[in-house]
UniProtKB/TrEMBL annotation:
Annotated Acidic residues bias: 133-148
PANTHER family: PRE-MRNA PROCESSING FACTOR 4 (PTHR19846:SF0), WD40 REPEAT PROTEIN (PTHR19846)
Keyword Repeat: yes
Family matches, as Pfam families: PRP4 (PF08799), WD40 (PF00400)
WD repeat start and end residues: 306-347, 368-409, 414-448, 522-553
Protein name (record): Pre-mRNA splicing factor
Keyword Repeat: yes
InterPro entries found in the cross-reference section: PRP4-like, PRP4-like_sf, WD40/YVTN_repeat-like_dom_sf, WD40_PAC1, WD40_repeat_CS, WD40_repeat_dom_sf, WD40_rpt
Organism: Niveomyces insectorum RCEF 264
Keywords assigned by UniProt, alphabetized: Repeat, WD repeat
GO biological process entries: mRNA splicing, via spliceosome
GO terms under cellular component: U4/U6 x U5 tri-snRNP complex
Segments forming domain Pre-mRNA processing factor 4 (PRP4)-like: 69-125
Amino acid sequence: MIHPSRMAYVEAATDEQQERRGGLDLANVPLEHDYDIPLTASGIAPEKASELLAQLARKKIAATVSVPKEDAKVREKLRELGEPITLFGEHPPDRKARLRDLLAGVILAERAAAAAGGEDVAMDDAAGRGSATDEDSEEEEDDEDVPEEFYTPGGPDLLRARIAIAEYSLPRTRRQVALQRAEAKIPLRTHVKFRDRIKGRLRDFEVQASQPIGDRNISMVRIAPSGTLVAAGNFGGSLGLYRVPDLEQAQVLRGHTSKISGLSWYPGATLPEAGVSADAVNLASGGAEGLIQLWSLNQDTPLATLAGHEQRVCRVEFHPSGMYLASASEDATWRLWDVRRAGESGSGSGSGTSDGSDGANGAELLRQEGHSRGVYAVSFNSDGSLIASAGLDSIGRIWDLRSGRTVMILDGPLDGHIKPIYGLDWSADGHRLLTASADGWVKCWDVRKVQRTGGIGAHTSTVSDVRWFKGLDDGLLGTPPGVDESTGVQRPKASGSFFVSSGFDQKIQIFSADDWAPVQTLNGHTGPVSSVDVSRDGAWIVSGGHDKTVKLWGRDDGLNLYA
């Protein structure tokens, strides 16, 4: 572009001046009409060039094709196209790329057919079978980008269960609040002195017993409420009970054919004062075959089997009342079961499922969605009013069992986990929750504040399990410590004063609650530690790992925290 002040000089320039400057008038530019562009590059045959161009066009189209994100939906689409759903050595990303390439081929073929017929075909029509995948995938992506809550009417069994849970939890909540008000009057100096004594006891923990179990990795361990038995399962489906403190085998339980991924003791099981019969349900287990087994202590076969999950059952946990059982699964749901109706075949109680359909088992009350990927952990709070769920989508949710609504989402740009959550456990106070993740962090969330209140980089790799100490002096689960006669103030309680975690860094960590200070590191496993638990009297910590052993940790004098 020429500035107006220079325009006069340009217009006044003569042809002779332009020629002298070496310029060329646009009208005098020579034109060439007899030109030829070779169809092939040097050394490339026309057929090869066409093939390369076709591949380039196919790649361009493949880059614009949307495919389902879930591997199960990718397999379904491959089946619709008449292709093998999986090839030897093929992984999910490879399978997704193969589907994208196939859909690109379909689009190219139909465009070529339309061009041969002289028709002008729209993009969506040319996509043919691929267009449905594109639309479905776009809808899925839109749904994932903008989460939307929905509610489905439940059946009468679920309504009765919610009422029963409310009637059970409300008096316990009132009692818990009264105890916490009394604890708030305890001087801080008394708390600090009491916690220091507990830390001193925990620092003396060493391995007291180690028992190899089977020829597969240990997947889950849980210690009985009495502290006299340990339930342990492995990757091969073997499940057994072992005596404390020598870890000698007491019983073998036969019923699972694949990995034991969830264990939970019935509330009060093995406690004489609880009145739970050895012939009744004492233990629940979940397996990778998708089944939940209920066990007594007097037979080696299940009392009942709960079926309904479409994929692996990752965790199971009894409600504090003992009437219900929750299970988490890789089918992206958690379910609520009526233990009293276990073993009944489809009686219609499944009408309380999230999609309104009948459950596969008469004991199923609720099938709850809400996670985009597999649900790995579930946990009830101490009064039984809330349940937390978390899993492979790195997000946790807290649900009100009395209404079915979401109370809190455990996530945030700065607060949430960045990798899958594998462990959940509530504090004895009923309003704080710990989450353990593959990102190496254990984080604490407070329902009352609706925010994260603490976090620890507990392990250098995946945190596989976390358990908050719930002691004998808990106000709801045991006997409160009482009032100090000299001061007239309630004594501090040990329950909730610390928690333990296990990790793939081969370590078990003990942390003090509230100040989140490390207390003790237990070393002894030669492989990743997959599970950990602590007894109610604080005398024992049990762990299991990929070294195929179950280990029992405690003090050499065998004293518990209350001695």
